[in-house]
Design a protein that fits this description.
Layout lengths: L1 H18 L2 H4 L18 E5 L6 H4 L6 H12 L6 H7 E5 L8 H22 L3 E5 L2 H7 L15 H4 L12 E5 L5 H6 L1 H18 L2
Parallel strand pairs: 1-2, 1-3, 3-4
Helix pairs in contact: 1-6
Length: about 210
Amino acid sequence: MRLMDEIIKLELLAMEVSDCRLCEAHGMALNHLPAIHRGDCAPMIVIGTQPEKADLHSRQLFSGSAGKRMMNWLVRAGVGKEVEDVLARIYFTTLSKCHTASGRDLNQAIGHCSFFIERELKLVAPRICVTLGKEPLDRLFRYVGTLEDVVGGEWTETELGSHMFPILPDGCRIIPLPKPSSALMWAKDVGRAERLDQALVLIDKLFNK
């Protein structure tokens, strides 16, 4: 019963996100996603920075070329045999719920959306948190190091940075990945490619244990 309650709350939250116009009230220009299904109360959550342009038309997060690379990483990590399996087993979200081309507007939008992602994390209650790129690490955990220093490892909130009020459940492990849009850059660097492979192995170990 509790699981069903949380699923219903996530659906209501998705509608609330779609209806939000806080950024427009501050004079910002951005593109809204419809009330999409991001997933249910899954063991793993994936957090990116903002939706891709392709997501505006597909009504699905991470549906563009960069998102497809990320889905292939998760298939390699043993989350599912096909992309459809991955979509059914993970909750996907972004720091900013809307798409904007302006870096300044994106920074503000992430701040406006922080209340939404905190509620998502509480409702989903994941045991694995996968972050894409450095922005989620900076924003959620106040991480001040480099992405290269943490990709390939598994971490707790306190190991990544200081946060007075934890936002993840006890025991949740954080697995940082690079932004899928930078995949080619990582693939060309042997050290980075090895760290990415190590991160995918860790996801497999934690997700399928």
